[in-house]
Amino acid sequence: MTSQRSVRIAEAIKRIVSEMLMRRIKDARITGMVSVTDVDVSGDLRHAKVFVSIYGDDEAQKQTMVGLNSARGLIQSEVGHQLGLRNTPDLSFKQDKSAEHAAHINALLQQIHTETASPAPDRSE
Predict the structure, then answer these.
(1) Do the beta carbons of residue 93 and residue 27 sit within 8 Å?
(2) How far is CA 53 from CA 14, 88, 99, 110, in A?
(3) How many CB atoms lie within 10 A of CB 62?
(4) Domains and CATH numbers, the chain
(5) Tens digits of residue pLDDT in 4-21
(6) What is the distance between the alpha carbons of residues 89 and 13, in angstroms, rounded to a whole number?
(7) Structure pTM?
(8) What number of CA atoms fall less than 13 Å from residue 117's CA on the CB side?
(9) What is the sign, positive or negative, of the torsion defined by CA atoms of 24, 25, 31, 32?
(10) ∠ at Cα 116 (113, 119), nearest 5°?
(11) Contact criterion met (CB below 8 Å) for 12 and 45
């Protein structure tokens, strides 16, 4: 069960990390468009998984993850500063591929729809 406090902290971490990615992190490896999709904070508030969606090819996605992990200390420090908690959650970045998965499912459904929507044979002859 998720407590209200962990939900509030997760939302705050999401906001802080998003702002930092837009304004403060200038790592050249973070090349694609990156958005924070979700944050999952453990019940004891010691760990937080930050899920990010990265738009770009496979190489850009890999380099962006390397850049994010490199900037983890700076981001975690800022999270600790802004939240003012006794123990700052240990951040880990995970790539959220749900958008890609949804696009793939949509393409498969469209293909099925196209194959089944072929015109009915003309029986008037």
Answers:
(1) no
(2) 13, 23, 8, 24
(3) 14
(4) 4-116 (3.30.300.20)
(5) 889 999 999 999 999 998
(6) 9
(7) 0.76
(8) 6
(9) negative
(10) 120
(11) no
Tokens representing 31 are 């090349």
Q: Which two tokens stand for residue 87?
A: 């123990």
Residue 103 pLDDT exceeds 80: no
Contact criterion met (CB below 8 Å) for 41 and 85:
no
Residue 122 tokens read as: 């003309």
pLDDT in tens, 42-65: 989 999 999 999 888 888 889 999
Average pLDDT, the chain: 86
Quickly tell me which residue has 């880990």 as its tokens. Answer: 92
Do 63 and 93 form a contact (C-beta atoms < 8 A)? Answer: no
List the structure tokens of 30. Answer: 């973070």
- Number of Cβ within 10 Å of residue 104's Cβ equals 11
Closest of 77, 70, 75, 64 to residue 35, by C-alpha = 64
58-70 and 72-83 helices, crossing angle to 10°: 50
